[in-house]
Fold this sequence. Notes:
single chain; Cytochrome Bc1 Complex, Chain D, domain 2; mainly alpha
Amino acid sequence: MNRRTRNCAISAFALAVGFAGALPAHAADIAAGKVKAVEVCKACHGEDGNSTSPDYPKIGGQHGDYLAKALRDYKSGQRKNAIMAAFAQPLSRQEIENLAAYYASQPAVVSSKY
C-alpha cells in the first residue's frame, strides 16, 4: 500500500469512527416505548400523549429530541418538577429514547382556548 492510499484509508477510518460516535448506541424501540408509556405516563399524559386534562401537557407528536432532552433534564434535576423528576429518575437512557420515539410517532392534537 502506498503512502497516499494508506493516508486516505486512515482518514476514512477516522471519519467513520467520528460519525459513529455521534449516532445513538441503539435505535429507539417504539413498541417498547408504548409499553412504558402505558405503565408510567398514561395516567397523566394519556396513552397517545394527548391528555384530556388541561393540567397535563399534550406531548403526542412533539419532537422526539425535545422529549428525550426534557426527560433527561428532569432525571438530572436540571429541569425542575417534583412529579416528573420522580417518574424520570428510574428511566434508563434507552427507555427515555423509546418513550420519546413513541410519543413523537403519535398524532398531535391541537386545541384552542378560543
